[in-house]
Amino acid sequence: MSSVLRPASTGQDPLIAGNYRPISSHLAITPPVSVVIPAMNEAENLPYVFKTLPSWIHEVVLVDGNSTDETVEVARSLWPDVKVVKQRGKGKGDALTTGFQAATGDIIVMVDADGSADGNEIVSYVSALVSGADFAKGSRFANGGGTDDMTFIRKLGNWALCTAVNRKFGARYTDLCYGYNAFWRHCLDKIELDCTGFEIETVMNIRVVKAGLKVQEIPSHEYLRIHGTSNLRAVRDGLRVLKVILRERSNRRALRRRPQHSPLLDSVRGEVS
Hints:
Blueprint: E1 5-6, H1 14-19, E2 21-22, E3 28-29, E4 33-39, H2 46-50, E5 59-64, H3 71-78, E6 83-86, H4 92-102, E7 107-110, H5 122-130, E8 135-139, E9 146-147, H6 152-169, E10 181-184, H7 200-210, E11 215-219, E12 221-222, H8 234-257
Parallel strand pairs: 4-5, 4-7, 5-6, 8-11, 9-12
Antiparallel strand pairs: 1-3, 2-3, 7-10, 8-10
Helix pairs in contact: 6-8, 7-8
Pfam families: Glycos_transf_2
Domain Glycosyltransferase 2-like: 34-156
InterPro entries: Glyco_trans_2-like, Glycosyltransferase_2, Nucleotide-diphossugar_trans
């Protein structure tokens, strides 16, 4: 894995052009970046998503959740080299796991398909990773972030759940349930993604902390969904997130009670096949 940060060249130096990927007038990187987008019936929103994606990314992986509209056709017209992967299961967590497996980049960025995320922010995530972070976590409530798409009840619920995670796992998060994140591929070797729903972000946020990975929050602005209706249900999905927190805390206590020489400790390290 390479994490080299270099000034971008404005000339035609073949060494720079052949080994580094310019992402701005003063920054270039060597790691290829994959953007994973789970989508189901998002044909109307994809133009807004794709127009902000930077041209220097290595690949776009669209995970199609058996769409009945023209999601796949629109994606291919907007980004001819898009890698389309059909989702076999159901749920956002299942879609993201499918996309992570298909991605080939050293850095993986997860972006929602509803038009609420600004692809121009990807440079901030990548910069954090090549500067030493393992996991770059988007936050709507960090200084410089914001949201146009959360009701008071959702903000209150997110705050309560985030506070619970911080206290129980020693994290310092300002946001918990947000789907705009980026990480080095090696993180997948240290966390086990075994959930299928919207709680996938919470699982990832908890397990990167439990694995001792270096996390850096990135201020991010969440915009309103442009077309359609979200499948998120505040009460239902909030309860699923709470169950995840309680389960992860219970698992942590169980592991602490086990003897150090127990072979079961080896099973904590999850693998994504």
